[in-house]
Fold these 3 entries.
Entry 1:
Amino acid sequence: MASETIRRQETELPETAGEVVASLAQHRVLCTAQVRVIHFPDNRIRWTQSVLARLRDAGLVESVQPPRTGRRLWFATERGVRMACEAHALEATPRPLEGSEVAGQLQAHTLAVNDAGICFLRAARARDDEFGPLSWRHEVAHRLSRGRGRLRRALIADAVLTYLRGEDGRVALEQRFLELDRATLSVDRLVVELAGYAVLYRAAGGDGEPAWRAYYPRFPVVHCVLAGAPRPALERRRKS
């Protein structure tokens, strides 16, 4: 009986349901307003809430509402992640999250990274470029050395963005590293984090070629986004 109910709920879902589940799986956690901007920019917030409620009833997504934020946060369930992977919507299989993780320290940084991705999404729509709901990936690892175990070092970018833009009748592929600081690191520690990209640029692969060529045709520009503090404080961090 329960399985029949779930199957009926899935048939009632809108065509965009698969995209919503896939973006929740890839982006880990999104608030209701973020889901609306990404998937339903021309609809009222109630439509987004209705779609998410139906996805929850189908067992594909779940939500929590941490008391300090006042926002309802959505994430894909194990079943939702499996559905997105079976539909070949994701490049890799993300680990399903627990509600306690979403409500904990993870959510503020992840939501801020997704806000940055949404800024690119809005710009792409305004410019008629291509940057969709799955055009940014979180915590992308890049090997810096060829050692093993602790000897192997890696740089983990907060996100990598892939953007297609039109230029003089041609299509240009732009990729960007995103490093997001919520004013939780000291300035000197942030500098060390950013210096890791210079290390990646100089690192050599086994064939003597730059190691980053295994990932990108050109070395991506690094965007450092400052958040998590009043603007005057962020301006001081930017200038220091």
Note: Residues 52 and 208 are 49 Å apart (CA to CA).
Entry 2:
Amino acid sequence: MIHIRSATASDVPLIRALIHELAEYERELHSVHITEEQLLRDGFSTNGEDGRYFECLIAESDGVPAGFALYFPIYSTWEGRSLHLEDLFVRPDFRGHGIGKALLRQVASIATERGCARLQWDVLEWNKPAIDFYLSLDATMLDDWRRMRVADHALASLAAAEDKVDA
């Protein structure tokens, strides 16, 4: 039996373990630097300005953790409220049993309840099983868009640029 529940602060070690498993699947384990402290602060804080940056669902199959979905609110200047699904992961032993669909359905339900215009996520271009799964749910692939990123030294350099204007 599949059970989807909201993650709690006590799930932080599990969430971190699932993130590592996902990164291993995506061949990016070396890129994971998130700590349990960061996850606790960013996902379970109720401290004013330092509020929650993400929410997380845990999928269990017969009481055993089988996967997770991590998402957060974003805003579309064209359509308003939206949700971004950062990660959806089902452990290999649990794939093919409807767990990924149940997680995605629950995130979609949350988006609908919150009046969101859309739910969006990214998928690696080599991950054909995931792409086929998403397409089977009537998701649309946005071939014309490319994600841009500034991180690490480049982020610090951009933030410290001399030609800043008053905000």
Note: The first helix runs from residue 12 to 25.
Entry 3:
Amino acid sequence: MTRDLAKVWADRMTKSERDQTFPDSEPRDAATLMLIDRAGAKPKVLLGRRHQGHKFMPGKYVFPGGRIEPLDRAMTAASELHADTQAKLLERVSAPSAGLARGFALAAVREMAEETGLLLGVKRDDAPTAPADDWGVFTKAHVHPDLAQIQFIARAITPPRRPRRFDTRFFTADATAIAHKIEGVVGADSELVELVWVPIEDATHLDMPTITGVVLEELAARVAAGMAHGLPVPFYFMKDQQFFRELL
């Protein structure tokens, strides 16, 4: 990485993103998934445009994602996380465990299904065992999440004194991981009003949160480096009014 992306994050932040006048709070664990299609000459990523009526990031282009749910870690899977991925997910956390690591990745898979209707994994004759209603669509479609297909791309914590703070893990998976599609999930009255496949280098020109654009650059660098599980994972955070990018 030739550019100081911590500085890029700081320089690109909008006025509203810089506003630190809110009471401070602990960031909530969250996960998001960057689906990538590398079948063509230029790799493309899947982005969703949020409904304009949302109070949080209205109209912004985002990657599907959301908060970790307690039972996510209990969802059955066709395979487990790569050892390197698990190890990096458990760095700089207060209570590391294999369950915590798989919970991060499974939350990203669940959120992808909830917001786009795309179920990632492998179809089998037998149905997976769902630990909660949130996972019922996987049982109905006989789709088992396939954690070995998922890579950990970046981690970022929302700066202090923002109205909503998240400790977000950014994952990626190839479009070939799509095992089933539920129609009608995306639309005018949904959380995401449209989905678009955009070349990575063009996606940063869309209206999106600053950190999303920065992580897109990390994804492009990872693609160029060969997409190995053992590649370092950048961790973005702010401390004492300074922005940092450290490698996990």
Note: Residues 5-247 form a domain with the Nucleoside Triphosphate Pyrophosphohydrolase fold (CATH 3.90.79.10).
